[in-house]
Write a structure and sequence with these properties.
A hairpin with a 4-residue loop joins strand 6 and strand 7. This protein folds into 3 domains: 78 residues, no CATH class; 94 residues, Cyclin A, domain 1 (Orthogonal Bundle); 85 residues, Cyclin-like (Cyclin A, domain 1). The protein is mainly alpha-helical and 347 residues long.
């Protein structure tokens, strides 16, 4: 029985009285076969199909769009077309390159994730390996480690990135900030800025530089406490990195610190928006230049609470911002005298 369609030809030889052959080769009659030829295919050919595994019928059709063989009775796809497109792919930021294998490079790994690692388990899915092969694998593993970290700079980088990952996990730093810090440390290592200095301190300084570049609301004191480094020494390493690498750092915006302070103090979103508005007004009056952004954000938050009649003390705001109460009070008085906003309550 033969059926002719507009874009395909389907011939079912399930009831053929003679033993069918394909390209001169004998095929048992117990199977049902399908010869399919699509006139729109780039290369036309004949395909041998068995009965549908879903319904057991033997009539199929070829979809000219997806190049898939589909059972006419139940709609089950019995054969899919092999992808013939480009085998390369490009990742975000690397559209010009045509990478054919693997994941994108990971700056948080010493070799950027493109090296070979020989595992420590002796065995496979079927049986355990011999003792002689174990010895060979142990030697190969040792040689691989030596090849991966051939000199002192590579070993230094491995220790530094491990410390950076741990520090980022403790502070919950976003991944893109950690990658920026890794690039800064790599550049400092190439410029020979690590010699004679503590790896942990330079890693912490590179992380703070990345935080400043990405305008992440983290303070030097937070980095110092998480890394176990003295704040003074950390600031010294940070200034060295900025000067030697000629990093361009944006001015810190106090607005970015308001959300964190309000969250720590348990204040509402209305207070947060009012505090951000106060900071914008202060920036227009040029009152924020040279001022600590955290202190300015804390003072604006307290000012917003006064305007909205929210019961909160200066000590609560100071604790949320991790600054002293006296500093918040002095900066608040400066904002109050300069802006003189309506609705403020007398102290």
């Amino acid at each position: 029985m033969a059926g002719e369609h507009k874009h395909r030809y389907t011939i079912n030889l399930q009831r053929a009285a003679v033993e069918p052959t394909i390209d001169g080769e004998h095929v048992p009659r117990r199977y049902s076969f399908l010869y399919v030829r699509d006139v729109n295919m780039r290369t036309s050919g004949l395909h041998l199909m068995k009965n549908c595994e879903n319904c057991g019928k033997g009539e199929f059709s070829l979809d000219s769009t997806t190049q898939e063989n589909i059972c006419v009775n139940c709609g089950h796809v019995v054969q899919t077309k092999i992808e013939e497109g480009a085998e390369w792919r490009s990742f975000e930021g690397e559209e010009g390159s045509r990478i054919r294998v693997g994941m994108p490079p990971n700056p948080l790994m010493p070799d950027k994730g493109i090296s070979t690692v020989i595992g420590s388990k002796y065995g496979d899915s079927t049986e355990r390996i011999s003792a002689k092969f174990k010895t060979d694998l142990r030697r190969l593993r040792m040689l691989q480690r030596r090849i991966t970290l051939p000199d002192s700079k590579d070993r230094n980088l491995a220790v530094a990135l491990r410390e950076l990952n741990e520090l980022g996990e403790r502070l919950e730093i976003p991944l893109f900030v950690l990658e920026r810090a890794s690039n800064i440390y790599r550049t400092a290592l190439e410029r020979d800025l690590i010699r004679g200095r503590s790896i942990k301190s330079v890693v912490a300084a590179a992380l703070y530089a990345a935080i400043r570049q990405t305008e992440n609301p983290r303070t030097l004191k937070e980095i110092s406490e998480a890394s176990g480094q003295e704040k003074r020494e950390l600031a010294k390493k940070y200034r060295l990195i900025v000067r030697k690498l000629r990093l361009r750092l944006p001015m810190p915006d106090p607005v970015k610190y308001v959300r964190k302070i309000c969250s720590e103090a348990g204040l509402s979103k209305k207070v947060m928006l009012e505090a951000q508005k106060i900071i914008r007004l202060a920036q227009e009056e040029k009152l924020t230049g040279g001022k600590n952004p955290t202190v300015m954000a804390a003072a604006a938050t307290y000012y917003a609470c006064i305007l909205l009649n929210v019961e909160v003390t200066q000590q609560d705001i100071a604790n949320a911002a991790d600054v002293t109460e006296t500093t918040v009070r002095n900066r608040f008085q400066g904002l109050k005298n300069a802006l003189n906003l309506e609705g403020e309550a007398a102290e």
